[in-house]
What does this fold into?
Amino acid sequence: MEVERVRGKVFEEAPGFPVQYGPDRTDHQPGSPLVPHETYRDLVSIALLLAMAFFLTAWIVPSLETPRNPAQTPFIVPDWYVLFSYGLLKLAEILPEPDVPGLFGLPAVRLTAGFWGFFLTQIPLIVLIVLPFVDRGQETRPAKSPIRSAFGVSFLLVWIFFASMYSVNNLILEKWPVIASDNVLKAFMFGPPVLAFFAAYVGLRRLGYSPMYWYRVVPLMAAFLITAGHSAFILATIWGHAEWTWIAGFLGLLTGLTLVPAVASAWLPEKAALRTTLAGSAFLIFFGLALWFTFWYYSPAPAYAVETVIMPNMHTIIALPIFSVVTGYVALRRPYSTYEYLLNECYQCGKCHTVCPVTKVEDDALGGLNLVYNSFKKQHDGVPLWTCLACDACSAVCPLEIQYSDYILEERAKIMAQPAVDGGDKK
It folds into this structure.
């Protein structure tokens, strides 16, 4: 009956039932105005921060360093937040420099490395400027827009990080000569962002409880095939070398790290696949480390393998096993409760509280709190969980169509099943 009353809009004119949203709404809800409450609080916070800054500058004076030696060239880099721009300027040297003929009376120009560097540094800024004009829909959680969110993870985080790292490529090659080549650092700017995109997309899709089988099997199988093919190519080039046996064993372990998640995801149930992925990966990693230190102690073969074979190819031989283990985990793990995920979308409009028949009867006993919100946040003594009638009046009026009664039934089932798991009722 409560659901029918909601569908008939019986509560639409009830006091406190919000029906309007946005800055032009006329049914204003009670709250604290911006002025003077928030304004005074912000001004006091700003004054305290300024007082702390003045105190530190007055009493803790930084010491001056030794004068610069004019005979030494300092290692100059920009501030950390523009390191990616400096890295993109360095990357521009690998791009072609064609001549563009003049058009409409304009002189001919040459697209130099300086032009490409300037163009590349504008890409992150262009994305940030265009994004507000492109994303004009309703607010959505990352799991409901996995492609856009995965692009943000791979581009705004991973790509900019490796671009910043490439800005000090000469220092990295000097400190870690085992990397062996500047091409490896350049490959970092392209390979890891792509892998991060697929891993983030699979994880977000799993978080949103979308169909997962082919979305996890295809990238994991591709990672295994690429790793196996690249390892076979490396072994073919060093066949007959004195240390090729050890290199073959090490590459076999790395290939196995990509094989275990792929096989488990394709042919095992999800829970068994997750356990197999974690246990198999942990065993291979432990065995690989033990083999590494054993041969490092008794033979110089690992040093040769690292410096001449593995590290120059690390953008695939090292990155893909890591990608397989991480993607296998996020694609197979069970997120938190389905209904807890859905209830996270609640923006507390109050409609469920208004139509709830239990809240009307036990408003004083519940302290006037939102029955749905407090049972989800566990901010109660357990009463709302058992007083809910599962009438779905809240679900019928919810703007986000959250099925709250399903969550209540799931939580009750968990509690009732707990004594059986623990071995029976406790006396």
Observations:
- The CA atoms of residues 92 and 309 lie 27 Å apart.
